[in-house]
Design brief:
HD/PDEase domain-containing protein, 2 domains, about 65% helix, Hypothetical protein af1432, elongated, HD/PDEase_dom
Length: about 210
Amino acid sequence: MIGDVEDMEEIKKIKAADSMGALSAAEKKNAITSMIEKRNSAGRAAATVKTGGTEMERVNRILQNRIYRSCLQKIEECEKERIFCRHDMTHFLDVARLAYILNLEESCGIKKDCIYACALLHDVGRHIQYTQNVPHEQAGLPIASDIMQECGFKEPDREMILDAIANHRNAEIKGERNLKGLLYRADKMSRICFACKAQDECYKVVEKRRMEL
């Protein structure tokens, strides 16, 4: 509506100038072309805001990153006989979406792509835990750092994400309204222990299982 009003005002100016003979045919054509181009630019800008533009570009780079894809394949191979919760793309995206919802609900102000990157990378060291018995929140740090550097994440964002990954099993930070707290809570919320078919065999103590929404 605002754009339509602005267009009408611009057209009136062009007509007024034309009626006074102040515009040549070429100038009139240029004025109309300029008005159309401004309207198209405004439309493109609005579309960018609506769709998020390149907001998730760095995250999409992670998904295509050779190191990341290799780690996912190794984790999948290690977990092919696993009857408990798996650490796959379904889990990562569940965590990302839950963390982003919490971010909005709690007005934490964390950038969306940082939340998604953190969720995608928080278990990236799982295969090392399986094969070398190194806690994955530690084993995954250098891997996640290398991936983020390759995908365009600058140091402040990298440090924040790495800190969250390092602490995503640390219950002491679960109430914090920052990326660490968001990741911890979303990671736990993503598991539906109450509907798991492997409850009886689960290694987690009952107190740590999520048995209700």
